[in-house]
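Notes to self after the call with IL:
- keep both proteins in one doc
- input above output, always
- annotate only the second one for now

Protein 1:
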Amino acid sequence: MVTARMAGHMYVTEFRNQDGSLNRVTEHPSFRSTLTSPTATITTADVGLDRFVENEDGTLSVFGTGVHLKLNGDLKAVGLWRLVVDLESGEPISQEYHGRFDVTAEETATALCEALS
């Protein structure tokens, strides 16, 4: 049996133009997730700055950092990302990922299962 627990906080800051309209939003997440089995405990972190900017062309740019997961000192998932979304349709226009992001990737899932067993 594995239990999961998350704790932390997020600070959100809105930046406004002189006319009061929203210019951009930043979020500062600081979350720790802990996975515990009878034989091991793994802690991950999601910390850093996430930023949202509404662009003049009707798109939204989203910048952020990913989950930080290390097992036995080996980095399994961390990175930076940038998304651009069409605000009218809600559809993504572009995506960029730098680093290793996918905590559900087979090699990461296998490493987690092995570490917790």
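Protein 2 (the one to annotate):
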Amino acid sequence: MDFLTLAFYLSVLSYCLGLALKALPLPFFAVKKLGRALVNESIFSCVLTFSYQIIVYLIEYFGIILGTNWGFYALWLAEKTSILLTIFAALKGIGLILSKIRLNFLVQGFLSQVIGLVSTSLTTIIATSIVSSIIHAGSSILIGLGIALHAVPFKLTRNVGSTLIAITVVFSIGLPLMPQFINLVTSTMGYTLIAGNNVCSAYIELVDASNNSFGQAVIEGYSSGELLYRYSFNEKGVLEVNKYSGFPCFDHEVVLNVVDLKYASTLRRTQENAWNITLYLPDVIALAPNRFVLIDSNTYVNGVVRGEKSVNISLFSTDQGEFKLYVEKDDDVVVLLDNVPAENYTLETKNWYSVNYHVRSYILPPGEHVVTVYLNYYATTPLDVDLYPYALRALNVDFTSPEVIIMLGTYAFIELTVLPLIYIAILLAISLNLARLLGGVSSSIAKLTVNL
């Protein structure tokens, strides 16, 4: 028996108990009042039970409006965890070196305090990751359980059920917005005092040959052959880098990595403290995130028409060439060449940052052609990238300077412990108010629902 069925039966039980109490031939007003209350509560619980799909839809709807993105949130958590682990390991290594040269008083003094701050921040991020996984993976079960607890007669567990529903709804919508909240609060902060003017923010869009958003990709920056940073674009083909993660403020070489394709170019600085640029993939037509068509050098794109589940690409080939179709291995795909099914192709499999690709290669005769791709997919696999924020490269921390180490630990503690806890406290306050409306403390909505 699932939770919704149980909630419905409990609502019926409350209704029957209420009618029975009202029908008792006893001249006690309290008994009659209890019977009416049970009837009202049962009706409200029943309405709530049948509103389960509406609740799930509202979570998705408000998430779209507010820009909820669990994939970006997961990448943010992974990036911050990587940074904290790097700082923690570096501080531990320095402490070990200082102990070896008999400078234990430094380790037991300021260094141990900074390590404690970084360790607390790391614990907070890991705990947040666990809570996020529970909320994201089990939201439907938690809402169903909350409705079942809400429907128990005599309000025995109504407060718990209302609170569980409210927390699941609010955290499902609001928790992935934590990075935006922290960026908003810390937008005037940064590592300027440590890194000088070498750290900027960046907003980079990645588009295909038809100026359409491409999707996930990996970008690396180099200067004199040395790696400066490694970041990944999200499913919308956007990379946002704040000053905490950092982006170089000077001209440098970049390499875009898309499966087995690499594109090299030079970024020229045009703004003082921020980058706002668009990068183009000249030989690629995006179909969906992690799905695209690669065109060879003998072929030109005359036009692209996008449908709901299909893309028509008008091509002109000066000589016999080929085009390649990149899709994830579980995708359903049909390719037509000039309205005829293209069944002759070679197939390769590739693994790129934990994404399993099927690459189909098709021969393209000379002349004008229309390639139609019908694509049906169920999910987009996120990239498992070992991110390397520029801040780690730009800080150039002089660990003989105690104030620099204290500054690093303090920044990590404020941004990754204090601010996340404040944001979670805000979400909890909203959840408790929503729980009141659902009948946890105040029965206003219940009475309104019944009277309607």
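Annotation: The CA atoms of residues 15 and 39 lie 5 Å apart. Residues 291-376 form a domain with the Immunoglobulin-like fold (CATH 2.60.40).
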